[in-house]
Amino acid sequence: MHSSPIVISGSGLWTPAHSISNEELVTAYNGYADLFNRDNAKAIAAEELTAVPHSSAEFIEKASGIKSRYVYIKDGILDIQRMRPNIPERSDDEISDQAEIAIAAAKDAMRSANKTGADIDMVIVACAYTQRAYPAIAIEVQHALGIEGFGFDMLVACSAATFALQRAYDAVAAGTARCVLLINPELTSPQVNYKDRDSHFIFGDVATALIVEPADSCSTESHFEILDTKSVTSFSNNIRSNFGYVSHATDADPFGPDKLFHQAGRKIFKEVCPMAVKHISSQLEALGIDNSRVSRWWLHQANINMNTLISRKLLGREATAEEAPIILDRYANTASAGSIIAFHLYQDDLANGDIGVICSFGAGYSIGSLIVKKVQRSAN
Ligand code: CO8
Fold it and tell me: Is 158 a catalytic residue?
């Protein structure tokens, strides 16, 4: 067992070059809907098919807080004949798309933690989907960054990053790893059903990365000590994707609507918000930390109304934009990376000893949270 405190010593972010505004997305979707309804006018009139309803940019912003999203490849998404990104296939000899974006975020995190590949001995790629089953994306990243040791992929949908942070903490605490690089290359756009009005606006692409190590090997002036980690899962079908290798054997359309992301958004809202409040409150209580002592809430970024409700319940008042930063207006829901983007972008102003909470909640259901304390060595 390692006796030194365990810290997050660096973080990294890769943001795609392309973005799509609500207006652009809705124009394309409504064009697709009109085309579908025109092509199927007879069947719709005979009530054999249901007309596809229009979407609206105002609804999207009001219901979710999302104004735009970044995408890895924009080409194809707004093409009403295609309605999905047009990602060129790469050969086995080329770096995979997901490893490429993972490496970009990893390099940023390694720079901020003053680490080279030689310092790291465990790589976790944690996200909602990996683009192939094997070899693991983490092992491809490990190879590209010249890291010895081992790597593996783990999928826990929206909670992949916080669950991986717990794995990293446990490995360092147990002494099975010296320094962990964990990466969340969230390539969500290939799984979005851009023909589905209820969910076409929800997701964006991004990659985030973190370095976890013992405080005694950490060389950064500013980092975060991990005070506690807590994960919970509780089965629900309300957020589901049936995409998988078994489709090859069932003769089902491997890309049918049920194979893409789909959800019962209202039910999730009602069920997950109280679960998240209880989870975080009981964790803080067990540590003897009053909710009012928390300076920053880096919450999962799925829906602004969920974040407002959760932080209001936790604080007994509205949280300020500084206390509970929102990034989903410009990044949308980036699955597990949302709370890590917020952590990466909104941490510099915290003072030595300030307490923060990183928390994700989503498919599974799954909730993962960490209580962290800012350490500013120059302040000592
Ligand atoms: N434009 C116009 N009207 C619309 C649209 C639209 N785009 N969509 C729905 N409407 C209509 C509905 O039909 C409904 O009409 P009516 O009242 O006549 O029936 C009305 O607007 C209201 O609809 P809702 O009740 O569904 O609207 P909500 O206020 O609930 O908002 C949300 C919908 C935004 C989906 C909201 O429910 C929500 O965000 N819920 C939480 C969802 C959530 O957190 N999900 C987590 C999923 S992410 C996750 O876990 C990771 C998965 C892995 C990654 C996947 C990568 C692809």
Answer: yes
